[in-house]
Specification:
9 helices; mainly beta; 23 strands; 504 residues; 21-stranded antiparallel β-sheet; single chain; two-stranded parallel ribbon
Length: 504
């Protein structure tokens, strides 16, 4: 038995002008009171969330090793999208809270196998299904008008306090193949490979939500059964060990509007597509192809990487080619990465597509990318071009993230489709080179070109780096650094622009 308690405190504040849609009570001509929605502007906005979650879980109480049934009891917030206590500018700085309600859940996570005959070099195929099923019940809760007002929502279209009868399903699949063993080996000695791994996001369905929406509708027969879905997004990922560096993922927005409102419309919209492929001389498919063509087997040289170098490469792979903030990439010594020597060639391809669902109504603003990046034009011209290439999506400059609470305008960014390329190779056992760039498919132009040359000098490393922006600005960096302590170096830099704070 596991008992959990957790607390979370989040405090946000900004000082710029922020727009909110609020409800106000206005006297009418008949002597009554009407509720009218209006737009108000606040010179700065503050919101503090204090949340408390508690649950009691009995791990794998029934069917251990088969169905893995797990019952649990949680005391959840009635409005699951908000914290338990909230104070904001809309509440006048007063703390307001919602109610808790018990939620009874039962989940099952079986693993199902299917075996099939192989063909060609494949001896056998195993298909593994790992579904995650859960069923949860919760009684009706209460959310006060003051709490809804503090979070920027309205009673008329709020259905988050209704009882819940939710069924959810998640699914992971693995297709594993066993390769045939050589003739002089044991029959069962063949290598096992995960040919395809398919991951899908869980999706949840609330039967009471569907009934509530139909009761509120003037034409219940026209309400689709899909309105019972409570998951606002769904995605799928694909991976394969035949191409260890291959990764594909896509994500869809399922509803136009919030799922806690009865005005949400089921209308799938693809928001994201990403694909990456990393190949090198030691990749299994490449090595097999070269052997078939009569090439000699490849024996990598001893690695030239220190522990700090390995960590830098891992961080660079996790962040992506332009994952480092531009303010850090384009200082006097840019954040160039070390090139592994003696390891053969490497190639990394990354395709990303991001777009935002077109909003409905008038409470949205279209983002001008050039105006958003304009502050970098004189300060850092190369950073300005990278900002344009990334559609203005700079770390810390997300307009939607800077808006606090609900009811603010939605900032709509233009769609972005980019193809990033990064390659490195050895010229000699001691010399290595790399080249990287990205291509904006929507605008039809390349981003900055980065070329690096590296020479191993026993305990030292020489690096020459050249960066050119699309507008012609360039930066050249030359330095010799001690491998054990890269901060000990002899640098030389030249660039075609000058920072305002260095002007004489």
């Amino acid at each position: 038995m596991t008992f959990r308690n957790s607390f979370r405190l989040n405090d946000q504040s900004n000082t710029f002008l922020q727009q909110k849609t609020v409800e106000e009570l206005v006297p009418n001509a008949g002597g009554g009171i009407d509720t009218v929605r209006s737009v108000r502007f606040f010179n700065g906005f503050t919101q503090t969330d204090l949340d408390w979650q508690t649950s009691l879980e009995i791990p794998a109480a029934f069917g251990r090793g088969t169905w893995n049934l797990t019952p649990s009891i949680q005391f959840v917030n009635t409005d699951g999208g908000s914290a338990f206590w909230v104070r904001s500018t809309l509440s006048g700085g007063r703390w307001v809270n919602q109610s808790k309600r018990p939620q009874f859940s039962l989940s099952a996570s079986p693993t199902i196998f299917g075996f099939f005959r192989g063909f060609g070099p494949i001896a056998r195929i195993r298909h593994q299904l790992s579904p995650t099923l859960s069923w949860s019940l919760a009684p009706a809760g209460t959310v006060s008008d003051d709490f809804l007002a503090a979070t920027g929502r309205f009673r008329a279209d709020f259905i988050g306090a209704q009882p819940q009868n939710i069924v959810s399903l998640g699914l992971q699949q693995n297709i594993e193949v066993k390769l045939r063993a050589p003739a002089d080996s044991e029959p069962d000695a063949g290598r096992k490979v995960k040919a395809l791994t398919i991951g899908t996001d869980p999706i949840a369905y609330d039967f009471i939500r569907l009934r509530t929406i139909r009761q509120r509708s003037a034409n219940p027969s026209q309400i689709s059964a899909l309105q019972g879905l409570t998951s606002d997004r769904w995605g799928v990922t694909l991976r394969s060990d035949f191409l260890p560096g291959f990764d594909f993922g896509t994500r869809w927005s399922l509803f136009q509007g919030s799922t806690v409102s009865d005005t949400a419309v089921f209308k799938p919209f693809r928001e994201e597509v990403r694909m990456s492929l990393q190949l090198d001389r030691q990749t299994g498919v490449i090595d097999w192809l070269i052997r078939k063509l009569g090439g000699a087997p490849f024996t990598p040289a001893a690695s030239n990487l220190t522990a700090a170098d390995s960590m830098q490469l891992r961080n660079r792979e996790n962040q992506g080619m332009f994952g480092t903030p531009i303010s850090q990439q384009n200082q006097i010594r840019p954040a160039y990465s070390v090139i592994p020597s003696g390891q053969g060639w490497r190639l990394s391809l990354n395709y990303t597509e991001n777009r935002q669902r077109p909003p409905v109504g008038t409470n949205f603003l279209l983002v001008d990318v050039e105006a958003r990046c304009a502050f970098l034009r004189q300060l850092d011209p190369i950073g300005f071009q990278n900002c344009i290439a990334s559609n203005g999506n700079l770390p810390g400059f997300d307009n939607n993230a800077n808006q606090i609470g609900l009811g603010s305008p939605i900032f709509v960014n233009p769609p972005l489709r980019t193809m990033a390329v990064q390659t490195s190779f050895n010229l000699t056992p001691k010399w290595a080179a790399s080249w990287s760039t990205s291509y904006d498919i929507g605008r039809g132009q390349f981003a900055a070109q980065q070329v690096s040359l590296q020479r191993e000098l026993h305990d030292w490393r020489l690096s020459m780096n050249f960066t050119q922006a699309p507008n012609g600005n360039f930066l050249f960096s030359f330095f010799v650094a001690l491998k054990a302590s890269p901060d000990i170096r002899l640098p030389y830099d030249q660039q075609t622009f000058r920072r305002p704070d260095t002007a004489r």
